[in-house]
Specification:
By secondary structure, the chain is mainly α. Helix content is 70%, strand content 0%. It has helices at residues 4-7, 29-41, 45-73, 79-103, 110-140. Helix 2 packs antiparallel against helix 3, helix 3 packs parallel to helix 5 and helix 4 (79-103) packs antiparallel against helix 5 (110-140). The two termini are 30 Å apart.
Length: 146
Amino acid sequence: MQSIRGLFAIPFLVAAGAPAACDFPVPHAIDLAYAAAVERSGGVTAALRDAQGEAWEGWDAELNRLYAELRQATPAPAHDILRNAQRAWLAFDTAQTQWDIALRADAGSAAALDIADAALARRRARVCELDDDLQRLRASGDGAEE
């Protein structure tokens, strides 16, 4: 299985301090659309920010979809644990974004791109974690009845 990192040089996947990228069995549609939008941008900041925004919305929708699937597949006694873990991750993500903003307050116009890249990488990585959890739960047969 070839990783998406091997197929595409997507800046947010290799940003300093970004979570490690996961491997999807095939390149994810969001990654493909983002790579194409970055290519079309010609390096224009406004176009890059638009591409980041669209990718973030895609990963956020995927995050919400996977969370709902994982919750449905999780045995009822663990629902609160899953919800608490997700809330803690969302709080971490918000706090980390605020920290990234504080660190780059005087970094110029590239700071917004860097901050968004880091947030995008975190959102994608969380999708990977939830997808891995869902696959593991389904494979174990310990999930809730559907």
